[in-house]
Write a structure and sequence with these properties.
Helix content is 43%, strand content 12%. The protein contains 48 helices and 33 strands. The protein has an 8-stranded parallel beta sheet with strand order 1-8-7-6-5-4-3-2. An 8-stranded parallel beta sheet has the order 19-18-15-14-13-12-11-20. The chain is globular.
């Protein structure tokens, strides 16, 4: 018999009870609850009396007998007969009877909104006698054992063409119910030939694998999940209508078939019944491929995981044209086979000319060769055709099932691939998985993916296939990529490229949801990389079950809840445990399991790593013995990671390793760069010996020897680049250098031999021992960091450098201790009472942790060493540390800084979680981010927005050598300048990132409004009312009054002078080596001119302030202002200020802000202020200097006018807060604090990020009479005149904040234009810079 599905009902041949009314799963009940029906009652139970017919075959009674057993007996005793074309029979009926639009509609749909003629499936509802009559003709005239229901297009997707989606369940129910009635009536006449209903599930009119757009290969008009949903509803209707078997048919895109099979699997899981499933593919032309490009064998390999009872071909071709493809399938299909071909090829009129006898003759070759168990007809066939075929078939025996053989891993792309049959280009029995479409395997691929250049990325994939990759590994794990979207887009494009998609894919991601999303776009049988017990048994089983349902093979990592397997015993133990769970509990096919026992890095210089190669090779052999039929794989590049950049060395190591792992231990699969693979015979003798020593841990000096060869090879590479022959050049003696330079050399080269004497010599040249650490030793570590970051140093070299550092510090520690002791004595304290555990003896305390889900700790350990060597107390709390534990320990230890480490992509998400939780807890420690997968950009864009202030910044640390500088700066006197410098840098990076995004996601305006800032004005009431409302002119403020409020930093930016940390900003800029002298000269000139301006009164300031009652509009998007309380009470508004809301999707949970959010709604007494100020007289002064050709003082005058007006705005805002409005009457802030915005409330300006619409200035100008009272005008483009002018709204609520609206969508622009009573085109012109769409 064919392989059974793994459900208990199928395995045990449990008869289907046919009591469908007992199916109460919520998904089934939901579909039934919304189903339409023309019946007064819905029959769903079809069990028959157990004694209705005799118990022996060929009799069959529903509810008593196993249909699986019955079909097996039927298909092995004779060739069974299916029906023919429904569409042809309907057309034939219409030739003799009226069947027009009116008949299609019937009484029930007589007023339908669109034409429905051609919707054959709806005839089951409107003309049931026609459909039942056709069923009976196939049963009685054709002699069919089984008939397909009239439900080929009865899915919500296909019915959308007729706007009849909601009738999908009813169409399936009625189609099946009519067939049930017909079969039962005919069976009753001859119980020895029971008839069965096959629920026909067509392909829909959409394809999951094919783009509907010529321009965009990634476009799709349907998703896998949508297909599953539509098929699931179809299955419920068919089963409720009484079908016996489900047939997924006429499949031209295997992805659609996989979705249908997934839906069937879900239904059978939910109900617990056994129901046979048939699958029928369609090869569209003589190429022998489906429309989506698969061969017949690949098609079968892609769907065999569902263990269909019968598989075959139908439609598109006549029987004669199908012959070679049926023959190929018959050689490989493990279950029963069928064919129902067309009656030849269509003629010029679209009809079919093949007569019943001609069709029967064409089928004869199938019967003679014993290829079929069931036969029927498709387009053009009729009951007479089936009868003729049956007459011929009765003289032949059915196809015998293939002999049972050893289980095999059978993958597919457009073509199939049996892993057990594969030999790679080196002749080894080994599956090459190409690594170059993996972000961590190819820098070029990563750059292309980050740029969104998918087209060029496809070239890399093609090259991998050309170079010998049997499978393409696809991995887009990167914190700066939306992995879910990138994986899906890459796969959707790749499956449309035949040169790529002809091979199977390995979908590789650290997040299960990403591989699952990719899997849903693959029509072939893929490998998923990976799952493991790291997530716990229950989730492991859930993930494995999902992959089984999708038919994927799976890589299982040797991880469990305790971490990564490193030793031979651990590798075997975890793999055997995983195997037993998968095979015995999940019923996962063992041949589809690939174990990855962790190829770990050797040659690091660390003793515990030396045996990793041996452990893997030995473990592989044992795993293959104790876990029958599995494959063993590994990421080969990990083995030689310590020697990255020198491919000759790396591939030589790989060659030795693979030869033994494959030929001696049975390793089957590996992620490799096929193009660069070497045969062992190609490795030079000296290098071969070194590789064998390293791989098999034969010598304690194996790593040292390999490093020598690596450095030699690197030098040869550099010499070749320079045109030399690679000859060794005599080294300069570094021992003749100065002691500080010798220390740097020793660190870079990992030489510890002379450290003590060099450190001692350096110690005598400084005032205290710590200066040796902070000077030459850290200088050396910085060089190490630069070289490692550039790929010019290797991991074992960095570890050696750290050891040199540690030895140097160890030498200095006694001197540092003595220095501390002497300091205590000088302070009059007893050094013997000194507590060594006293934290005050350290430069600071740092907590280090590798985040949850990540087991990698080499980088973290190096950072800990380096920080410890620099007198920091480090609390290293380990790997896989949950967020709560990190924060709890940080608070328990009272640390000054928290450092997070991670190597895998999911760690980036976990770091975001930690940052958010730190913010929620109100923690104040700076947060450092580091690790191989992290980046400055990711930290700036994704993590820091959740936790970054001047007090507690979130900073990316490139490598261990930078950690001391960063931590020292954060704990030093220059912290504020250091952090401001980084904050400015991160702000720019975020702006550049979002500006460069081609596809940024936006909420709809309605969604954004739902997620607005919701201030509780009862808990945090509006500010007190101003003592007096209205408009006030400000005319009596002198320049002397506002000079203390001047912020000089923008002044230097005007002149393009910028100091570098630690000398950024005024007044430290004067100390900067590059611009300090010029900045001081410029400042002195400014002071002289400012004094002259003040003395001569050549400039003066003037302004106007307005304070108004205010409330948010009813829709929450605008602010109404009122002249007084009486006007508010009567609803007589003075003006309305229209606001804009953020719509661009955020990386955090922050609300989508509008300035309207800061004002309370009606019912509260809230207020809003505004002002406009200007510096007058500058134009006259500029004209004077222009006449004198004095450009320098002309620009200086303009720069000072800008400083005056900005200072006036700061001064006036303070006056509003403390006196005019008076909501902060007790405010005690000096001018420096004012410039750092340490007060409550904000003063955003129209035309700037918080309200980027300049037209709002008109409303302000009218409200406060800015022209009349401050001599300020607006140009046609709404620039303020004079040029040195500032205007702003004033919000008092403490939760008000500055923000940038960013880009907005058309839905908001339309609403905004309507509220402002602007034409849409005019509004779009004013808002053009922030539109997320192109204007018409």
């Amino acid at each position: 018999e064919p392989r059974c599905p793994t459900s208990d009902a199928a395995m045990n041949k449990v008869p289907n009870p046919y009591v469908n009314s007992k199916f109460t799963h919520e998904k089934i009940m939901e579909i039934r609850s919304r189903a339409t029906s023309g019946r007064t009652s819905m029959e769903r139970d079809y069990a028959q009396p157990k004694d209705l017919y005799p118990e022996s075959f060929p009799y069959y009674v529903r509810g008593r007998d196993s249909l699986r057993e019955h079909i097996t007996k039927l298909f092995t005793s004779q060739i069974a007969f299916y029906d023919g074309a429904m569409g042809t029979m309907i057309q034939n009926y219409a030739k003799r009877n009226r069947l027009e639009e009116e008949e299609y509609r019937g009484d029930r749909f007589k007023d339908w909104s669109c034409n429905v003629k051609g919707n054959n499936d709806m005839l089951s509802i409107t003309q049931p006698h026609v459909i039942k009559g056709i069923y009976k003709q196939y049963l009685e005239v054709g002699g069919s054992h089984m008939i397909g229901t009239n439900t080929f297009s009865s899915t919500t997707i296909a019915m959308a063409d007729y706007d009849m989606q909601k009738y999908a369940y009813e169409l399936n129910y009625e189609g099946a119910r009519l067939a049930r009635e017909a079969c039962d009536e005919v069976t009753a006449k001859d119980p020895s030939k029971p008839r069965f209903v096959i629920g026909a599930m067509g392909p829909t009119n959409r394809t999951g694998s094919i783009s509907p757009s010529v321009e965009d290969p990634s476009a799709r008009n349907v998703t896998f999940d949508e297909l599953v949903d539509t098929y699931f509803e179809q299955v419920v209707g068919l089963v409720d209508g009484g079908c016996d078997i489900l047939m997924v048919e006429t499949i031209f895109d295997t992805l659609n078939a996989k979705a249908a099979l997934y839906a069937i699997g879900e239904f059978l899981d939910f109900t617990g019944i056994d129901m046979p499933v048939f699958v029928s593919g369609t090869l569209v032309d003589q190429s022998g491929r489906t429309l989506s490009g698969q061969t017949g064998e690949a098609f079968y390999a892609s769907i065999r995981h569902a263990r269909p009872m019968c598989v075959g071909l139908n439609c598109a071709l006549g029987a004669s044209h199908m012959t070679p493809f049926v023959e190929k399938l018959a050689k490989v299909v493990e279950c029963f086979m069928h064919v129902y071909a067309n009656a030849g090829l269509p003629n010029a009129m679209g009809g079919y000319d093949e007569t019943p006898d001609e069709m029967a003759a064409q089928y004869k070759v199938f019967f003679e060769n014993g290829w079929l168990n069931m036969v029927g007809g498709c387009c053009g066939s009729t009951p007479d055709h089936i009868a003729a075929v049956a007459e011929v078939a009765k003289n032949y025996s059915p196809r015998k099932l293939l002999d049972i053989t050893r289980p095999k891993m059978w993958l597919s792309g457009l073509e199939d691939l049996v892993v057990e049959d594969v030999h790679n280009h080196l002749g080894l029995p080994f599956l090459n998985v190409g690594e170059r479409c993996n972000i961590s395997g190819s820098i070029r691929f990563k750059k292309l993916m980050m740029k969104g250049d998918y087209a060029t990325a496809m070239d890399i994939a093609k090259k991998q296939v050309e170079d010998g990759a049997h499978v393409i590994d696809i991995n887009v794990d990167d914190g700066m990529l939306d992995g879910l979207a990138a994986m899906q887009k890459f796969v959707k494009i790749a499956v449309t490229e035949p040169d790529i998609s002809k091979v199977p894919f390995m979908l590789d991601a650290s997040k299960f949801e990403i591989v699952l999303a990719g899997l849903k776009w693959c029509q072939g049988k893929c490998i998923v990389n990976s799952i493991s017990l790291k997530v716990g048994e229950e989730l492991f089983k859930e993930q494995a079950t999902l992959l089984k349902k999708h038919g994927a093979a799976v890589v299982v990592m040797a991880f469990d809840e305790e971490g990564q397997a490193a030793t031979e015993d651990e590798k075997v133990r975890i793999c055997k445990r995983s195997y037993d769970i998968l095979v015995n509990e999940v019923k996962f096919p063992p041949e589809d399991i690939i174990f990855d026992p962790n190829v770990l890095t050797i040659g690091t210089g660390m003793e515990e790593h030396a045996n990793y190669g041996v452990d893997f090779i030995k473990a592989t052999k044992t795993i293959k013995e104790v876990c029958p039929y599995v494959k063993v794989s590994g990421g080969i590049s990990n083995l030689s990671f310590g020697f990255r950049g020198v491919m000759k060395i790396r591939e030589s190591i790989h060659a030795v390793f693979l030869k033994h792992a494959i030929l001696e231990s049975g390793m089957d699969v590996g992620i490799v760069n096929a193009h660069e693979m070497l045969m062992v015979s190609e490795v030079e003798p000296e290098l071969l010996a070194a590789c064998e020593d390293l791989v098999f841990n034969k010598s304690e000096n194996a790593t040292e020897k390999m490093l020598e060869l690596t450095q030699k090879e690197r030098k040869a590479i550099e010499d070749r680049k320079k045109g030399g022959g690679g000859q060794e050049v005599k080294k300069t003696s570094w021992r003749d250098l100065d002691a500080t330079k010798r220390l740097e050399h020793a660190l870079v080269n990992g030489i510890s031999q002379y450290v003590d004497q060099d450190v001692e010599e350096a110690r005598h040249k400084v005032s205290k021992p710590l200066e040796v650490i902070e000077g030459p030793l850290m200088d050396g570590m910085n060089v190490v960091g630069d070289l490692f970051g550039a790929g010019k140093m290797f991991l074992p070299q960095v570890i050696k450098s750290a050891r040199v550092m540690k030895k140097a510090v160890a030498y200095l520690l006694p001197f540092m201790e003595e220095e501390k002791r002497q300091k205590l004595i000088d302070e009059g304290k007893d050094p013997n009472e000194f507590d060594e555990n006293d934290d005050s003896n350290y430069a600071g305390k740092v907590l280090m942790a590798t985040v949850k889900g990540d087991v990698h700790d080499i980088g973290k350990n190096i950072v800990s060493v380096v920080l410890g060597c620099n007198n920091f107390k480090v609390y290293d709390i380990g790997v896989m540390v949950p967020c709560e534990d990190i924060l709890d320990k940080a608070q328990e230890y009272g640390v000054d800084v928290i450092g997070l480490s991670g190597l895998i992509t999911p760690s980036l998400d976990e770091m975001v979680v930690v940052a958010k939780e730190m913010s929620k807890r109100g923690m104040k420690q700076p947060l450092l981010i580091g690790g191989a997968t992290t980046s400055k950009m990711h930290t700036a864009v994704k993590i820091s927005p959740n936790y970054f202030t001047l007090e507690h910044p979130c900073i990316h640390v490139l490598d261990a050598s930078r950690s001391v500088t960063v931590v020292s700066s954060l704990l030093g006197d220059n912290k504020e300048d250091f952090v401001e410098d980084i904050m400015e840098d991160y702000d720019e990076m975020r702006e550049d990132y979002y500006a460069g995004l081609e596809e940024r996601y936006f909420l709809t305006f309605e969604e954004a409004k739902e997620q607005k800032l919701k201030i509780d004005f009862d808990a945090a009431p509006p500010a007190p009312a101003p003592s007096e409302l209205g408009v006030t002119a400000i005319e009596n403020v002198s320049l002397e009054d506002i000079v203390p409020y001047i912020d000089w930093n923008p002044f230097f930016q005007t002149w393009e002078l910028r100091g570098r940390y630690p000398n950024r900003g005024y007044p430290k800029i004067f100390n900067d080596d590059h611009v300090g002298t010029e900045a001081k000269k410029l400042f002195d000139d400014a002071q002289a001119l400012m004094k002259k301006i003040i003395a001569e009164k050549s400039m003066h300031v003037k302004g106007v302030v307005g304070l108004f009652a205010a409330n948010r509009s009813e829709d929450g998007e605008d602010v109404h202002i009122y002249a007084d309380e009486a006007s508010r009470a009567s609803g007589n508004s003075l003006a309305t200020f229209c606001m804009l809301r953020q719509q661009a999707e955020k990386e955090s949970d922050d609300p989508y802000l509008s300035q309207a959010d800061f004002i309370a709604p009606a019912g509260y007494k809230d207020h809003m202020g505004m002002f406009a100020v200007a510096c007058h007289g500058c134009d006259n002064l500029v004209a004077k200097y222009e006449a004198e050709n004095d450009d320098y003082n002309k620009i200086m005058s303009q720069a000072l006018a800008d400083r005056f007006v900005e200072a006036f705005a700061e001064y006036l805002h303070r006056e509003i807060r403390t006196k005019m409005w008076g909501y902060a009457a007790d405010e005690k802030l000096d001018e420096a604090d004012l410039l750092k915005i340490k007060y409550d409330g904000i003063r955003p300006a129209p035309g700037y990020p918080s309200q980027p619409d300049h037209t709002e200035k008109r409303t302000m100008w009218d409200s406060i009479k800015a022209k009349e009272l401050a001599n300020m005008e607006l140009s046609d483009s709404l620039s303020m005149l004079p040029a040195a002018s500032v205007s702003a709204l004033v919000f008092a609520h403490p939760q008000s904040q500055y923000f940038a609206v960013g880009q907005i969508g058309k839905d908001q622009v339309e609403s905004y234009a309507q509220r402002k009573k602007f034409e849409l085109s005019v509004m779009e012109r004013w808002l053009s810079p922030i539109l997320n769409y192109d204007r018409d």
